[in-house]
Design a protein that fits this description.
By secondary structure, the protein is of the alpha/beta class. Helices cover about 40% and strands about 10% of the residues. It has a 5-stranded parallel beta sheet with strand order 3-2-1-4-5, with helices on both faces.
Length: about 240
């Protein structure tokens, strides 16, 4: 007890800047929405490469399988990053990803129509959780793997939505109205799958620990839209997909 106070005083004095003394760099914190898919894994690696202390956030929301979540947990662990899993549900369903009775699209074509794999307001809900998490831990950035090229039909994967939501967050949170803005960053928003895979390869993304298939089998089905888009991306990038036999 006698030595505690001087020790504290010493730390206080040593934190005062002196000529020629470099202060310890402030570690930036970021929340990354990590589904375990190809895009979110790439964004996760991107955030790490920018020097952020990353706090990963994943969701168990009643999706068809848990393969992606297993990948998300593994990626976070391999990178020594904090991982939070939020369990929630959409009792009203409204998506082929939530209702196994609904047939999944297997066209493999990118159209402007909204596909039946769209989960109503999913990113609004996920980003709301992320904003709450960011406010509590003092993070100034939220990273999301949204992409409006490969999934242009998803209204919550467009830059116009993300900009509007960022504005809402900074008007509706204590951090935002205090002048400490939270930024929503989507580095993949205008990239196609080939470019995302090339970017991920340069960043050292462990593609073998990512999952894109809408089905949850032991191996990708190769038929659903997500599998087809993934295959086309790897082929165009000239990189072998470790999940393809």
């Amino acid at each position: 007890m006698i030595n505690r106070k001087p020790a504290i005083m010493k730390r206080v004095r040593s934190s005062v800047k002196k000529p020629g003394h470099k202060a310890a760099p402030v570690v930036k914190k970021a929340v990354v929405l990590l589904s375990g898919g190809l895009d979110s894994a790439t964004v996760f690696s991107y955030a790490l490469s920018k020097g952020y202390e990353v706090f990963c956030l994943s969701f168990d929301y009643g999706q068809r399988h848990k393969k992606e979540l297993q990948c998300a947990k593994r990626l976070a662990k391999l990178n020594n990053s904090n991982w939070q899993l939020v369990k929630m549900s959409f009792p009203w369903k409204g998506s082929a990803l939530l209702d196994k009775k609904t047939q999944l699209s297997q066209s493999g074509k990118i159209t402007k129509s909204i596909p039946n794999t769209y989960v109503p307001s999913r990113n609004i809900i996920f980003l709301s959780y992320a904003a709450s998490y960011a406010e509590v831990i003092g993070a100034d950035t939220i990273f999301i793997g949204a992409n409006q090229i490969d999934y242009s039909g998803y209204p919550d994967c467009r830059s116009s939505f993300l900009s509007a939501f960022e504005s809402a967050v900074n008007k509706g949170t204590k951090r935002g109205v205090s002048g400490k803005k939270i930024k929503i960053t989507s580095p993949l928003i205008l990239k196609n799958k080939k470019d995302i895979i090339k970017m991920g390869s340069k960043l050292g993304v462990l593609f073998q620990y990512t999952w894109s298939c809408y089905e949850g089998g032991s191996s990708p089905c190769g038929k659903c839209d997500s599998c087809v888009i993934r295959k086309k991306g790897f082929d165009a990038a000239g990189i072998k997909d470790p999940l393809r036999k």
